[in-house]
């Protein structure tokens, strides 16, 4: 009775639940070839397809969002550029724009380089400002009119305006 009982772990094959999407090249022709009928959506209504880009560039985290659609509108393939990034220890996505004839690879690349300049640390490449918060503030904040520009008035017109305003304020003070 010198035998030891060794517990054996039952070997079960792990079922993969995630689907791996093959990255595509960041070129117009590769994006045009993407159709929603090529992909298996399972229960999802959309997919994010990654691009083959350098991890050191401003394009890091760039993805293309495609929608499932129905069989009737399978000819309509809505495609949207997104950038996936980490900010304050949390992952997030920022919408860059809809892929169309007027907004393609070149425009997306220009937008990304501007975003990278203004929102990341130049040494580390980490995001220091949230692009979604910036976009929300741009819509919310009403810009002030520029008062440094001249109104195109002559000196005499400026003097007349000053005298009129000064005269009105004296009349208001007198009436009160």
Q: Which keywords apply here?
A:
Double Stranded RNA Binding Domain; alpha+beta; five-stranded mixed β-sheet
Low-confidence segments: none
How many H/I helices?
4
What percent of the residues sit in helical stretches (DSSP H or I)?
25-40%
Number of strands: 5
The helix-and-strand class reads alpha+beta
Shape: elongated
Any idea what the CATH architecture of the domain at 24-132 is? Answer: 2-Layer Sandwich
Rg estimate, integer Å: 29 Å
- CATH class (first level) name of the domain at 24-132: Alpha Beta
Q: Reading side by side through the largest sheet, how are the strands ordered? A: 1-2-3-4-5
The description of the largest β-sheet is: 5 strands, mixed
- What name does the CATH topology of the domain at 24-132 carry? Double Stranded RNA Binding Domain
How many angstroms separate the termini? 113 Å
Write the H/E string, N to C. Answer: EHEEEEHHH
How much of the sequence is in beta strands? 15-25%
Assign the CATH superfamily of the domain at 24-132: Integrase, DNA-binding domain
Quick rundown:
The chain has helices at residues 28-33, 105-119, 131-140, 155-175; strands at residues 24-25, 46-52, 62-67, 79-87, 90-98. It contains four helices and five strands; from the N terminus they run E-H-E-E-E-E-H-H-H.
């Amino acid at each position: 009775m010198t035998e030891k009982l060794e517990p054996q772990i039952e070997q079960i094959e792990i079922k993969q639940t995630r689907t791996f999407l093959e990255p595509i090249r960041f070129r117009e022709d590769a994006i045009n070839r993407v159709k929603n009928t090529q992909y298996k959506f399972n229960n999802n209504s959309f997919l994010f397809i990654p691009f083959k880009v350098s991890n050191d560039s401003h394009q890091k985290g760039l993805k293309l969002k495609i929608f499932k659609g129905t069989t009737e509108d399978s000819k309509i393939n809505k495609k949207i550029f997104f950038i996936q990034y980490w900010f304050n220890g949390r992952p997030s996505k920022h919408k860059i724009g809809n892929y169309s004839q007027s907004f393609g690879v070149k425009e997306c690349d220009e937008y990304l380089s501007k975003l990278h300049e203004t929102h990341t640390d130049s040494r580390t490449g980490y995001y220091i400002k949230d692009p979604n918060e910036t976009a929300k503030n741009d819509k919310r904040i009403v810009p002030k009119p520029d008062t440094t520009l001249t109104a195109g008035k002559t000196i005499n017109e400026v003097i007349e305006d000053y005298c009129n305003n000064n005269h009105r304020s004296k009349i208001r003070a007198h009436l009160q």
